[in-house]
Amino acid sequence: MFKTKLINVGYFDIHQHLYSDMGYFIRQENYYDVKGDFPRIQEKDLMRGVGDVKYSIIVADCLSYIVPENLLFERIKN
Question: Mean pLDDT of all residues in the chain?
Answer without folding.
Answer: 90
